[in-house]
Amino acid sequence: MRILIEEWDGDGAIRIPDEALQELELDVGDSLYLIEEFVGNTRCLVLSKKPQIADRIGELTEAWNSEQRGSLEDK
Question: Which end of the chain is more exposed for a tag (fewer CB within 10 A), N or C?
Answer without folding.
Answer: C
